[in-house]
Specification:
The chain has helices at residues 3-16, 29-38, 44-54, 61-67, 69-76, 82-99, 108-112, 119-130, 139-148, 156-166, 169-185. The protein is mostly helical and 209 residues long. The radius of gyration is 18 Å and the shape is elongated. The model has no long low-confidence stretch (mean pLDDT 95).
Length: 209
């Protein structure tokens, strides 16, 4: 795909949704971090249900430590991997207090050093909490980029590198959320909704439905 077509795709997505909003709830950097950690192998809807019950009681590192791991497990037990997530979250709280004054760090390496935080989670936090132009690549972004030929890669890291190279700076802040929404509601995994796709005429997928 050439750069002219890429820009047309981004402009069309921007026109359709000028200010995309993440479906994962969270107002502070800490809430966004914890919600993103909880979202691993869980839907945003299920995570939002959990955080709506958890955050009124504990939504900072000190209050979550006081809340305790057993009560935390009980609050998030409807999510997959809740035992591991509970342990990671408690350890995250300890590290934030010991090394960062209780605040969430705003750089990639510090975030990746936290338990249960990989590059994708760190990129989401940097983008949503600190308004940095990162482009996190999850399964939706990976699928949309490869299927449309927007950015082809065998791994999420490879796709991320290509996106950061080919997406103009003015679009990088919202690119992740545009592609997530497109993959979640239109460019579905098993059968994409090509007939109602906003970018069907620009997409290079060869087996359109």
């Amino acid at each position: 795909m050439n750069q002219y077509i890429r820009k047309k795709i981004l402009m069309r997505l921007q026109k359709h949704d000028p200010q995309p909003i993440s479906e994962l709830n969270g107002t502070s950097p800490f809430e966004i971090l914890i919600a993103t950690v909880l979202s691993a192998q869980s839907t945003d809807v299920s995570v939002n249900k959990v955080t709506s019950r958890l955050y009124p009681w504990a939504n900072t590192a000190p209050t979550l430590l006081e809340f305790g791991i057993e009560r935390l497990k009980n609050k998030i037990k409807t999510l997959g991997l809740y035992n591991i997530k509970s342990k990671n979250i408690i350890n995250i709280c300890h590290i934030l207090l010991e090394k960062h004054g209780g605040d969430v760090p705003n750089n990639m390496e510090a975030l990746k050093s936290l338990p249960g935080v990989g590059r994708k989670t760190a990129s989401v936090v940097l983008n949503k909490a600190f308004h940095q132009p990162t482009i996190a690549v999850d399964r939706h972004v990976f699928r949309v980029c490869n299927r449309s030929r927007f950015a082809i890669g065998a791994s999420v890291r490879e796709v991320e590198k290509k996106l950061l190279q080919c997406v103009p700076k003015i679009f990088q802040m919202n690119c992740h959320q545009w592609f997530v929404s497109h993959g979640r509601y239109t460019c579905l995994s098993r059968k994409p909704k090509c007939g109602v796709c906003l970018i069907e005429d620009l997409c290079e997928f060869t087996s359109k439905y």
